[in-house]
Automatic annotation (TrEMBL):
Belongs to the short-chain dehydrogenases/reductases (SDR) family. FabI subfamily. Homotetramer. Pathway: Lipid metabolism; fatty acid biosynthesis. It catalyses: a 2,3-saturated acyl-[ACP] + NAD(+) = a (2E)-enoyl-[ACP] + NADH + H(+). InterPro entries: Enoyl-ACP_Rdtase_NADH, NAD(P)-bd_dom_sf, SDR_fam. This is Enoyl-[acyl-carrier-protein] reductase [NADH], chloroplastic. It is an enzyme of class 1 (oxidoreductase).
């Protein structure tokens, strides 16, 4: 007897039922009344409802509608199909509107870089205007706890400046708070363990008052104090003969550049690997001189950067297989840091980059810091063994377009 219901009544019942299951709420008193009238047809049309629900997923087949037509005595499937489709579109709009209204007071969705609960050790922070400091700030802004390793001869000045508030302006994070450095460790990454330290260094007055500053000892100290870290950053380099052309560089100067600028990373990761939590991240800083000729960047430093990038790939494999640690390098563009000024031509390099890079602007340390935060985050969970260029695209250029040779070409300029 129930199969003899009017076709129009069955249509209204089915539509109301589907609408109910889609919205999961009664939008008005009228819709509640419709649900009440749907009950007589609900049991007899259960299989028909499954067919109509399948249509919402794009699986509509004419056979299903034939069953529905015979079950509810609908003479033609076409008007029903058209009416239902248009009604579905209206419902989609309503659902979207309802969801938007329900989330008006909630934070906007997105892909935040969240490093809360993570701990980072950044080797090579000795002032507030280098890439190491910028990386520390970005990691802190994302919620990470910050530990730093500072070159022993610069330790007292750095700690004093921090304590006296000289870096307070540079410590300001996006939310207005100040970056906190939980602990500063003395570090000289040229020496792996105490046995490697020569006597003249041990007695050097610049090292007086500091202890446990070799790589091995620094890792042991961090383990003793905190147990583990999640992020390791290598932001240090030194070439005692950097201003000399390669042909005039001594063996001692060349090997010193490789020791301080590339092997130091191998040593750092070797000694910290046991205390880096599985799934952690390690990052180093490199420069385009590793693969392009940069006159003036001598003393074996270009060779050291090339070695660093090669080591990054090998370390990514070894650290990845052992503990799931990701290892990447950031090839950063020129920055007016104190370390860069020691080379003597940093202003020239910045001007050259601004004139020739696809993005004609000066690179900020913050942009490098933010890239490091991304690489350290779960958003980069499948990125390892790579060199990420953060240089306004200068690495992609094959020629310097500011050359007089190209003056007749219509080369676009940046619109400011």
């Amino acid at each position: 007897m129930r199969l003899k219901l009017l076709g129009s009544a069955c249509f209204g019942s089915l539509f109301s039922l589907v609408r109910f299951h889609l919205l999961k709420m009664a939008t008005t008193a009228a819709s509640s009344l419709q649900m009440a009238t749907a009950r007589p047809c609900m049991s007899s049309s259960r299989r028909a409802f499954v067919s109509s629900a399948a249509m919402l997923n794009g699986n509509f087949k004419l056979a299903s509608w034939t069953k529905l037509s015979s079950a509810c005595h609908i003479a033609s499937t076409q008007p029903f199909h058209r009416s239902f489709t248009s009604s579905s579109l209206k419902m989609d709009k309503f659902v979207t509107k309802a969801m938007a209204g329900a989330s008006e007071n909630k934070p906007a969705s997105g892909l935040p870089i969240d490093l809360k609960g993570k701990r980072a050790f950044i080797a090579g922070v000795a002032d507030d205007n280098g890439y190491g400091w910028a990386i520390a700030k970005s990691l802190a802004a994302a919620g990470a706890e910050i530990l730093v390793g500072t070159w022993v001869p610069a330790l007292n000045i750095f700690e004093s400046s921090l304590r006296r508030g000289k870096f307070d302006e540079s410590r300001v994070l996006p939310d207005g708070s100040l970056m906190e450095i939980t602990k500063i460790y003395p570090l000289d990454a040229v020496f792996d363990n105490p046995e490697d330290v020569p006597e003249d260094i041990k007695t050097n007055k610049r090292y007086a008052g500091s202890s446990k500053w070799t790589v091995q000892e620094a890792a042991e100290s961090v383990k003793s104090d905190f147990g583990s870290v999640d992020i390791l950053v290598h932001s240090l380099a030194n070439g005692p003969e950097v201003v000399k052309p390669l042909l005039e560089t001594s063996r001692k100067g060349y090997l010193a550049a490789l020791s301080a600028s590339s092997y130091s990373y191998v040593s750092l990761l070797k000694h910290f690997l046991p205390i880096i939590n599985p799934g952690g991240s390690s990052i180093s800083l490199t420069y385009i001189a590793s693969e392009r000729i940069i006159p003036g960047y001598g003393g074996g430093m270009s060779s050291a950067k090339a070695a660093l990038e090669s080591d990054t790939r090998v370390l990514a494999f070894e650290a990845g297989r052992r503990k799931g640690i990701r290892v990447n390098a950031i090839s950063a563009g020129p920055l007016r840091s104190r370390a860069a000024k020691a080379i003597g031509f940093i202003d020239m390099m910045i001007d050259y980059s601004s004139a020739n890079a696809p993005l004609q602007k000066e690179l900020s340390a913050e942009e490098v810091g933010n890239t490091a935060a991304f690489l350290a985050s779960p958003l980069a969970s499948a990125i390892t063994g790579g060199v990420i260029y953060v240089d306004n695209g200068l690495n992609a250029m094959g020629v310097g377009v500011d050359s007089p040779i190209f003056e007749k070409l219509d080369i676009p300029k940046a619109q400011h």
